[in-house]
Write a structure and sequence with these properties.
This protein is mainly α. The chain is built from 13 helices and no strands. Helix content is 61%, strand content 0%.
Length: 275
């Protein structure tokens, strides 16, 4: 059946910007350049490119949220953090598609990947840093590209979302230990009994501390989604390559399994036992 003609729709774009022009689809859709003759490489490329696009938006929203928390503008921060969690859900489901690639199919394209690996994703590294998982060694894969290194280094040296959250709690009269507020933000965050006590103050009286209580739950939502992403990454890799080492030199599944133990906002989980 022929598609009906919509007489009011503009059909001539000789002098106007079209949908493809606005989205720069010629550039976007020409960026998939398989190196192997294998049919399945396009899936591998598209899955990773679309994930990087979602991470671009995620990083944009995270940076906005951090700025708003630092500026005591919580309503827009809540909106941005909620969006980050929904983006993370999209990234979780992206693994469902890649998991349709079987071990023989991946084996056919793996030699063409060289030493490239998702481990080297600079956007993912900035997201980890923004969430507080700092590690100076993770700057090294970007040292060959000075402009890119500067971006990753800036994320590494900046206060994380949790750092700014704890500072916000202090500004709102919640007792956060001074040594936590003055800590070196380039170091990974470690759980602190004083911070746990601060969150207990918030959670034991939500009505009196509603904004901080809501912010705490937004952070839990984010970490919950992040944990699901890490777990789905692990199971997909194990399904496709087993226990082989990663192309970037990591221990593969064993490395990903160790990452499952990383806690971003530890006291927000430990207080649940105390409440």
């Amino acid at each position: 059946m022929n598609e009906p003609v919509h007489h009011d729709a503009q059909l001539d774009f000789s002098n106007d910007m079209s949908y493809g022009d606005y989205l720069q689809l010629d550039q976007v859709l020409s960026a998939q350049r398989p190196l192997s003759p294998d049919h399945n490489e396009l899936l591998f490329i598209v899955q990773h490119q679309t994930s990087e696009l979602w991470m671009k938006l995620m990083l944009h929203e995270l940076q906005g949220a951090i700025g708003n928390v630092a500026g005591d503008r919580l309503p827009p921060a809540f909106k941005m953090l909620s969006r980050v969690s929904r983006i993370m859900e999209q990234l979780v489901h992206a693994w469902d598609v890649l998991a349709t690639m079987t071990p023989p199919e991946y084996t056919a394209i793996r030699p063409y990947l060289g030493r490239s690996s998702g481990f080297q994703s600079w956007q993912y590294r900035c997201i980890e840093f923004a969430c507080g998982n700092k590690n100076a060694a993770m700057l090294e894969p970007h040292r060959h590209a000075p402009e890119r290194l500067a971006e990753v280094q800036h994320a590494y040296e900046s206060p994380s979302l949790y750092d700014e959250t704890l500072r916000l709690m202090h500004r709102n009269g919640i007792a956060v230990p001074t040594h936590v507020l003055q800590r070196d933000v380039t170091q990974p965050y470690r759980a602190d009994a004083g911070v746990e006590a601060a969150w207990l103050t918030v959670y034991r009286d939500p009505e009196a501390n509603w904004d901080l209580y809501q912010l705490g739950e937004e952070l839990v939502d984010l970490e919950d989604a992040f944990r699901l992403w890490r777990f789905r990454h692990l199971t997909t890799v194990e399904r496709v390559i087993g226990f082989k080492r990663g192309t970037g030199g990591t221990a593969g599944v064993d490395y990903l399994r160790a990452m499952l133990d990383t806690e971003l906002f530890p006291e927000l989980w430990s207080i649940r036992t105390q409440l």
